[in-house]
Specification:
- The complex is a heterodimer of chains A (240) and B (668).
- In chain A, 68% of the residues lie in helices and 3% in strands.
- Chain A contains twelve helices and four strands; from the N terminus they run H-E-H-H-H-H-H-H-H-H-H-H-H-E-E-E.
- With 668 residues, chain B is mainly α.
- In chain B, helix 37 packs parallel to helix 40.
- Chain B is elongated, with a radius of gyration of 34 Å.
- Classes of the chains: A mainly alpha (240), B mainly alpha (668).
- At the A-B interface, helix 6, helix 7, helix 8 and helix 9 of A face helix 1, helix 3, helix 4 and helix 6 of B.
Chain lengths: 240, 668
């Protein structure tokens, strides 16, 4: 029987040993051998600031680090004003600004245009302007549904807001959330970025996602110090 | 605080236009009205149409011209910036009217804005230049734009100046001019020699609009031009082509579609390029995936797929294996497709079913027949045509034909209705489908008569359009194959002997072929059937004989000869009549057409002649010995003896049989 247990233990150890063990010392040494250029990091930071629209920060960073933004910073200001207008509920103002920036954006993006009109209706309802809202729905939203059948479902949901006395407690109340404004603002932001041939998403989140993915994959093959907390990015040694 | 909606909408549309047109309206108010108009129409097709009707475009063009004039004079001592602003806003408004709307483009062109906009793109102010270039680009996206003459040297110079700038709007304008106007090989050549291709490939690394614009322009220059396509794929240019291939994986769907279009264009112009299976599979996969896109990209994807696979069985197989059929059938059964998308889906399915039996099976098993039949009655002619063509291709499936899946009222009635369609192409497509469906191995053909099919086919056989005549006769020919006498009578009731005779003598040889083939089928059967050609003083027999004697087309002669051979399978009277046709009593010096046709290089014709001899000398018939003697005296026996080693197996067989029968009587 003891032989049996020896075999079991050895098999278990071998299985355990199948995953490579890397100590903190070794891991840190490996990390130190990897070279990352400062310019690349600066570019990542600039890319984040520019895509998210932090103009002042981008300008300062440009001065202090000498990193060139990949977009004209002046256009960021315009874009941020559009975003802000929507987040404040001034959709008509936002539309005017987008059209001044680039009249093609709304002319070639039927879905975005529909969502902006939808947001206008939502703001009218939020402000209790029911009659105006009804008129607006008829004048501006119904034609969108006629022009494009794909919008009909969303259109019905939006118009349903008018049907309820207490819209805030209706099944479609999510449309009145601030999150709906952010959603619309984000959509406009992305469309403007695309029209300027800039990526609509910053690179930094993709890098972090890649890190998570790679660590998960490596977990199957090795035991090594992991990064579990991104803000601190400290290596946590695995206790066996 | 939200902007009160009331203030901007206080002016109704008519009032807005009135302000723009009025000479009394103060300038600032006019500019405000202009911006208001612009913001009302951008993105809003319905409003654009409404304002077009109210004459908005001429009003805006008027403002554009006067602003341009003032700016040209330096502002007339007034605020130059103000007038530049008016110029830019009016150009942008016109651009929006023209964006994706043919009616808008027409209005802008009719109002005479084109030349003015063209002059403004070279303005020193980048904003003015941009706004005008953008508007012109919108115009050039429409077929209504004026054709650009590439063969004029100064025009090429202008085009190159557009393409060689760094300005996005100007380069894209150049590209859209090419996409719009480059059509003939000589235009393609001129552009190629001017070095345009290199510049366009360079732009593939630019912005989104530059990428898309260049791809479209490249496709236009390459289309059907083997020389240019070949030069592009040859070594040295490989790097540039790789850029295009990479763009198949671009994140923007429209870019992917345009890259595919470009590559398909290259493949179709010069076959050896991109022949590796890896590329072919990738193309099919990308196009299949693009078909799911809800926007216009998804509408156009099936057309590109069709271009890729049309007439090419290997590509159809690849597409089949990539599950293209499932995707397309899914779209079809979803219903409520835009007419364009529906047309594309039907077209692609038709191509997939054109040669592959497995495709036809799959389509029929996907239960889309109902949607297909519905599409036969669609309001758009192109959709009706595409669905009839799809039905024609599916009906090539012998298995399903003989299972009787098509010969029912649900399918036949809508098709017969299409025979009355206003569009000739739709008629011809329906005739194609009917031609296949009536090759029915069951005895359901009476249904076709009941649905009025024969009547319509006969009617169309008298059409002014020879294509329609040919296809109608083809359908009748297929219908009459091995059909019972009652059906034959129906055909001849509708199609009088004299019309049949004139079709046999039709000016178009292709019509003659079909007419003779029809008669051949009609006389193939019982003795009663053969009597048809003897009606009205042997009108049809003489017509057939005339073709046999005078036609120079092997196809016509073959059908005529086979018809004769079918008649010769009848009774004594019939056989003697054929002998008279072959050897007329009147003139002994007349050419021996039997020998002539036996000597034909066309195997089918000489086989048909051999068959005729076989039937004429059928041993059981009383007058055979007399006919044998006559044939011998006309040197037919000697001729046959020379032919016993004919290379064609079928011919050899019949010749030997004929000879055998003849010798039986000679030796006896």
């Amino acid at each position: 029987m003891s032989l049996f247990w020896v075999v079991i233990r050895q098999t278990a150890q071998r299985h355990y040993m199948a995953k490579k063990l890397v100590t903190m010392v070794d891991w840190e040494k490996k990390l130190n051998d990897v070279k990352v250029r400062r310019e690349d990091m600066n570019k990542l930071v600039m890319n984040f600031l520019v895509t998210e629209g932090y103009v002042d920060a981008a300008e300062k960073f440009q001065i202090e680090s000498g990193t060139e933004p990949d977009i004209d910073l002046a256009t960021i200001t315009d874009r941020m004003m559009v975003k802000k207008a929507i987040q404040d509920g001034n959709v008509e103002d936002a539309i005017e600004k987008v059209n001044d920036l680039n009249p093609e954006i709304l002319d070639t993006n039927p879905q975005l245009f529909f969502h902006l009109q939808q947001q206008r209706l939502i703001e009218l309802i939020r402000n209790g302007k029911v009659e105006e809202a009804l008129e607006f729905a008829q004048e501006e939203l119904t034609p969108r549904g006629e022009e494009n059948q794909g919008f009909l479902e969303e259109l019905e949901r939006t118009v349903a807001l008018l049907a309820f006395e207490d819209a805030a407690n209706s099944p479609v109340s999510d449309l009145l959330d601030m999150s709906q404004r952010f959603k619309t603002a984000s959509e406009v932001n992305a469309a403007i970025l695309t029209s300027q041939s800039h990526e609509k998403d910053p690179k930094l989140p993709s890098l972090l996602k890649l890190l998570i993915l790679v660590q998960n994959q490596l977990d199957e093959k090795a035991i090594y110090p992991r990064i579990n907390n991104f803000p601190t990015a400290t290596l946590e040694e695995r206790t066996v | 605080m939200p902007t009160p909606a009331a203030s901007n909408h206080s002016a109704g549309p008519e009032e807005l236009i009135a302000r723009l047109e009025s000479s009394h309206c103060p300038r600032e108010a006019k500019l405000k009205a202009l911006r208001d108009l612009k913001n009302r129409i951008i993105g809003n097709r319905t409003k654009k149409l409404a304002f077009l009707k109210l004459g908005a475009v001429p009003a805006v063009v008027g403002i554009l011209s006067s602003a341009a004039a003032i700016v040209g004079r330096g502002g007339d001592g007034e605020n130059l910036e103000f007038h530049e602003s008016v110029l830019i806003q009016s150009a942008a408004t016109l651009g929006s009217f023209a964006c994706g709307l043919d009616a808008g483009v027409k209005a802008v062109l009719d109002a005479g804005a084109f030349a003015l906009l063209l002059s403004l793109i070279s303005h020193s102010s980048e904003k003015i230049s941009d706004a005008s270039a953008r508007t012109l680009r919108m115009i050039y996206h429409s077929k209504l734009a004026p054709k650009f003459d590439f063969l004029l040297e100064k025009n090429i110079g202008f085009l190159l100046s557009l393409l060689n700038t760094e300005n996005e709007n100007l380069t894209c304008l150049g590209a859209s001019i090419i996409s719009h106007s480059c059509q003939t090989p000589s235009e393609q050549q001129v552009l190629n020699e001017a070095g345009v291709i290199n510049r366009l490939v360079g732009l593939l690394g630019g912005s989104l609009t530059q990428k898309d614009g260049s791809l479209e322009a490249l496709a236009a220059i390459i289309k059907n031009n083997q020389e240019i396509a070949k030069r592009l794929t040859e070594t040295g240019n490989g790097g540039e082509l790789n850029t295009v291939i990479e763009l198949i994986k671009d994140k923007n769907p429209r870019t992917r579609l345009l890259a595919c279009t470009c590559i398909v264009s290259l493949r179709n112009s010069y076959v050896p390029c991109f022949h590796e299976s890896g590329h072919r599979n990738k193309l099919v996969l990308v196009l299949s995936e693009l078909m799911d896109d809800p926007s216009q990209v998804g509408d156009e994807a099936p057309f590109v797929l069709s271009d890729l696979i049309s007439q090419k069985e290997d590509m159809q197989k690849i597409a089949y294996e990539a599950n293209a059929i499932e995707k397309l059938c899914e779209q079809l059964s979803k219903g409520s497709l835009t007419p364009k998308r529906l047309e594309g889906v039907l077209l692609a399915l038709a191509d997939l079913c054109s040669k592959l039996e497995c495709s036809r099976d799959k389509v029929l098993n996907s239960k889309v027949l109902t949607s297909l039949i519905q599409a036969l009655a669609h309001e758009r002619a192109a959709v009706r045509q595409a669905s009839a063509n799809l039905l024609r291709n599916i009906a090539r499936s012998v298995k399903n034909l003989s299972a009787g899946h098509f010969m029912n009222e649900d399918v036949v009635l809508p098709l017969v209705r299409l025979l009355l369609d206003s569009s000739t192409s739709v008629k011809i497509a329906a005739l194609g489908a009917i031609s296949n469906i009536v090759v029915d191995f069951n005895t359901q053909k009476r249904l076709f008569i009941k649905c009025g099919g024969v009547k319509q086919l006969v009617h169309l056989s008298q059409s002014m359009d020879s294509n329609v005549r040919i296809n109608a006769l083809w359908a009748l020919k297929n219908f009459s194959f091995h059909v019972d006498n009652r059906c034959k009578e129906e055909i001849l009731l509708e199609l009088s002997t004299s019309s049949m005779a004139s079709l046999i003598g039709d000016p178009d040889p292709s019509v003659q072929v079909q007419a003779l083939a029809l008669i051949r089928n009609l006389v193939d059967g019982t003795l009663n059937s053969i009597e048809y050609v003897f009606g009205e003083d042997c009108l049809l027999l003489h017509a057939i004989g005339r073709q046999l004697r005078h036609s120079s087309s092997a196809e016509v002669l073959t059908q005529a000869m086979y018809t004769m051979s079918n008649i010769a399978s009848g009774n004594e009277h019939h056989k003697e009549a054929i002998m008279t046709q072959l050897f007329p009593h009147e003139s002994k010096d007349m050419e021996n057409i039997l020998i002539k046709h036996l000597r034909s290089v066309n195997s089918q014709l000489l086989t048909a002649a051999a068959w005729t001899i076989i039937n004429l000398t059928f041993p059981g018939s009383p007058g055979t010995s007399g006919r044998v003697a006559e044939l011998r005296s006309k040197n037919v026996v000697a001729e046959l003896k020379n032919m016993v080693d004919d290379p064609c197996l079928d011919a050899r067989l019949r010749i030997r049989t004929a000879l055998g029968q003849l010798m039986m009587f000679i030796d006896a």
